[in-house]
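Question: Now follow the chain.
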Amino acid sequence: MNEAQPQNHHHNETGPSRRSVLWTAGATGAGLGLGGLTAGPAAAAAPRATGPSATAATTPAAKGKTMIGVPFERRSTVRVAIIGLGNRGGSMIDLFLAVPGVRVVALCDPVKEKTARAARKVTNAGQPAPAVYTNGDHDFERLCQRGDLDFVYVATPWDLHFEMAKAAMLHGKHVGVECPVALRLEELWQLVDLSERTRRHCMQVENCCYGRNEMRVLRMAHAGLFGELLHGAGAYLHDLRNLMFDPTYYEGPWRRLWHTRLRGDLYPTHGFGPVANYMDINRGDRAIRISSIGTPALGLAAYRKGHMPPNDPSWKESYIGSDRTISLVQTAKGRVIRLEHDVSTPHPYSRINSLGGTKGVFEDYPARIYLEPDQSNDEWGDFSSYEQWDHWLWKEHANPPGGHDGMDYMLVFRLMQCMRLGLVPDFDVYDAATWTAPVPLSDRSIKAHGAPQEIPDFTRGLWKQARPGVDSEKPEE
């Protein structure tokens, strides 16, 4: 699930699924206890507190060659499967169908009504009826065994991301996963190793990297307009209280339950991904350590008290997730990245999205800029006057379809373009692992009273090599 910006939310029109029943049973079991489907991965996702000498950065031996710089196989048509057809997958299918040269071959969700609705979209778009997989929570394994798939897109509850990405690669498919790509450091390393061993790409499909402002700032940073980069900030500040307690919006209370399990930043990639791109993380610089602190967990309990009836199952939940987490990431070049997360208290939507250097600074929400010599007298400049720095994607698709101000379409279009033309993807499994690592490490740091935690070098030393990323050149079709 990826909720980058507020948009028109449509409620799930179906009844409870086997997943929602099991998740609810787990929630009502007892506070932090996790039952049903989520007991294994969720319980394991919560690391014990460690001090400054944490062993998070221990680098296991490689099991295959690097996937850095490895292109996709060129193909005239990209054959896509979608696993998870709820709020995110059920809307993203429209964008896959809108991109030329893409065919949606298979769909998977145990809620049959959702799968049927998505299948109708495929046939209404003039494509052959897709194969559907609705036989329980593990039918995705049969889908991944198909021989007529090139790419698997995963948009399911977070607990399931790792196993689905793993199954896709083991069966020879490239895979893109909504955030977070996994929840434990061991899982992140397994995805890195599996990508290298199977020669399949595993990507965190981070739509915020393709926002118009983010791509403009990226090109300006690489052109040197900010001078030597010093600091950046990114966040996910989105009041989700009403949606997390809505009995129909999510498929069961899975998202709210993560606030009973971890204290750290549950959703770092929306903020981390774009700033990592600005600073060429894994492409000349590296995130080396993170230190996190968190507030008390009061927001969800206060909302429950004011809005939920006394017999609601949520009253058996004990929330431990910090309402606001603030993390500082330091890079090998000494730069600082601030990450924030808050979905439990009243706040206008913001991803902060800031970048500063020796020549000036950009800050978003609202967008404003101060660059020497263009601005002076401590007065913000008009960021719209820098539209000449827009990425070619935004110049070519000025009014893209889809949600989140068009960034979703840009993500799908560019990824499918790279697959059709046999190009190197804009980001890879090393970026996925790095951007997701704050989930377990921020939790670990908060439990250790802010002690720094080492971020693993998932590239195994290859981060020192400069290489292209999202700031791409327009390819020849």
Summary: The two ends are 32 Å apart (CA to CA). The first helix runs from residue 18 to 29.
